[in-house]
Amino acid sequence: MRIVYLNGDYVPKAAAKVSVFDRGLLFSDAVYEVISVIDGRLIDMERHVTRLERSLGELSINAFADWSTVAQKLVTDNGLQEGLVYLQVSRGVMDERDYRWPAPDTSPTIFAFAQERVLIENPMAGRGMRIITRPDLRWQRCDIKTTQLLYASLMKMEAEAAGVDDVWMTSGDLVTEGTSQNAHIISRESVLISHQLDRSILPGVTRIGMLEQAKSMGLSVEERAFSIEEAKDAAEAFISSSTLLIMPVVEIDGHKIGDGRPGERTARIRQNYLAAVQSDHSTKT
Ligand code: PDD
Q1: What's the whole-model pTM score?
Q2: Mutational test site, ligand 1, from 205, 241, 269, 274, max ligand atoms within 8 Å of CB
Q3: How far apart are CA 99 and CA 118, in angstroms?
Q4: So what's the pLDDT on residue 260?
Q5: Does CATH number 3.90.780.10 belong to domain 124-281?
Q6: Domain residue ranges in the chain
Q7: Is the CB of 44 within 6 Å of ligand 1?
Q8: Pocket test for ligand 1, best of 28, 34, 140, 208 (most atoms within 8 A of CB)
Q9: pLDDT of residue 31
Q10: Structural domain 3-116, CATH architecture
């Protein structure tokens, strides 16, 4: 039986109920994290907790839980070997619908569940992703991991309708990020270029580990926005995220990247990243 977490209790999925007056439901007044699980272990949990606490702080949501223990218990109780843990915190339930939230704070709604997913043997790593670009029409605080994901969903559906794998969003002619991934390129001069951390992108947890691996491979790194043209002209392109890990991009707006096959350095970054997270015993709880 699938066990989920809701406000301090571990309950069967069907028993986990949330009020229709929850601000997460009415206003997307909620933040979340997606933590990957490999070999039954949570990957980079501490970094996810740090980002969750920052997101909560930016929105003045007061919520405390032993996040790592909750996530680990869900992995164990559900016998999850490979997949993810989803964790969400909303500001909580109000008496009546109102844009303003009451002071002092409502008590938050905290829930989490574990979900199976193939991470390592994902066939996309062998063939690479095909991407189209679309304007980034999200709000201007993309550094906060809120559950306002409608635009990302619309873009995923647009990618599906176009017969490609995903969308990279753009501001003017600069790429911000993927619908649910950070976007990176390796230039012909062998420089890894990745958008700087600011309000226009989510500070990816996988991005941190990816940059560590790239640097230890001797790649030089520039943290700045790159243009669609630069991306099309790059030697390699790839994305990072907790659910896709490191994934090569082989086509942007119908234009092949490099020779149209997954880049060799991207494959090494993926391999090294996986080796690092699998041997990192600090992720064990
Ligand atoms: N998405 N950018 C956006 C907009 C994201 O939604 C995500 C993650 C990332 C990558 O962050 P990380 O490396 O910490 O997973 C970048 C998760 C996986 C999701 O919404 O399912």
Answers
A1: 0.97
A2: 241
A3: 40
A4: 97
A5: no
A6: 3-116, 124-281
A7: no
A8: 34
A9: 98
A10: 2-Layer Sandwich (3.30)
CA nearest ligand 1 atom 4, residue:
180
In the chain (285 residues long), the average pLDDT of successive 10-residue segments reads: 97 97 98 98 98 97 96 98 98 94 84 98 98 98 98 98 98 98 98 98 98 97 98 98 98 97 98 93 50
Tell me, in angstroms, the distance from the centre of ligand 1 to residue 121's CA: 19
The CA distance from 285 to 279, in Å, is 14
Instruction: Give the tokens for residue 230.
Output: 């630069």
CA-closest residue to ligand 1 atom 6? 180
Task: Output the CA 249–ligand 1 centroid distance in Å.
Answer: 16
Supply the residues annotated as catalytic.
145
CA nearest neighbour of 267 among 118, 132, 128, 165:
128
Which string of DSSP letters, residue by residue, matches 171-197? ETTEEEEESSSEEEEE-TTSEEEE--S
Identify the pLDDT of residue 144: 98
